[in-house]
Amino acid sequence: MKKVDKNPDLLVPVLRDNPLRDMVVEYVGTKLEPESDEVTVEMVVEVFSTDFPEFLMAVAEENYIRGYSQALDDVEATYVKE
């Protein structure tokens, strides 16, 4: 199995294609002042983790619960009870 050190999606620049994204990019860009004027997904996560951690925790918890539930469903479907 190949080891992945970092999610490449974190390095993707955020497009300003709707009002919410525009607001987030503006806020994160002002706060972090990136050299290239590009705001990446990783930068957004960094700022949200310090300025709005309860939002990220809710998303992470929901993702964890859904993933765990799916894993249990997969195990149950794989091992048929006799």
- First-last Cα distance: 33 Å
Strand count? 0
Strand content: under 5%
Shape assignment: elongated
Which structural class should the secondary elements be placed in? mainly alpha
Q: Number of DSSP helices?
A: 3
The major β-sheet equals:
none
Helix coverage percent of residues? 55-70%
The radius of gyration computed from the alpha-carbon positions, rounded to a whole number of angstroms, is 18 Å
Count of individual domains: 2
| Low-confidence spans | none
Model description:
This protein is mostly helical. It has two domains: 13-51; 53-82. Helix content is 62%, strand content 0%. The protein has helices spanning 19-32, 41-51, 53-78. The longest helix is centred in the last third of the chain and has 26 residues, at 53-78.
Summary, kept brief:
The chain is mainly alpha-helical and about 80 residues long. It is built from 3 helices and no strands.
List keywords for this structure.
single chain, 82 residues, 0% strand
Secondary-structure topology with pairs:
Elements: H1 19-32, H2 41-51, H3 53-78
Helix pairs in contact: 2-3
